[in-house]
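Lab channel / #folding
Pinned by the channel admin:
"Please post every new chain as: sequence first, then the structure tokens as a reply. Keep commentary short and put observations after the output so the thread stays searchable."

First post following the new format, from NK:
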Amino acid sequence: MEDENVEDFYEFRLFNEPPLNPSTAGNAQGPPRRIGIRSPSPDPGGPGFLIPRRSDTFYFASCGNAEKTEQFRRVAVSGEEILRARGDRWRGCELPWRVMTIKLAQQIKPEKSILYTDGDAGKRTRIGKKRRIALRKKIAMAEAKAVAAQMNQTEKETMEREKRTRRNREKKVKRKIKDKAKKASDS
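Reply from TO:
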């Protein structure tokens, strides 16, 4: 018992009480304070269920009563029934405005990187610096071509629109002149 007490107590100068007389505050701090440290006792219940006080009947059903056994059989779903029901239609899920489809991250394949190639045995290796620079230039040129093509397309559309409006104005002016000439000839 004495050996246990010696092992459980440690001396800490950090927790010393300040000296009562401030004039003797130099090195005379008194003996260090002894602090007892003990680890928590192990759980008597041991590993397993969260509430070890419950009896096994709470978790497991006994098959002693034939009526109870039959009731469990009626309520339980067997694996064969699950496999049979796998092909059945789910009427509630046939209404598309009520169904929300969630795509799993596993189904979506990640986009392949152009900086890596699949090497031996599925190991990805990084391509060389010259090839990376060439790929960047190629991608930049393709993007520039796409932007230029889009600009040309929008430019063509605006030119066609201007041409149509110009023609419509000319037709309108000609119609007005024609109407004026007709009114002048009628009067």
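NK: The longest helix spans residues 129-186.
TO: also worth noting, Strands lie at 9-12, 33-36, 116-118, 124-126.
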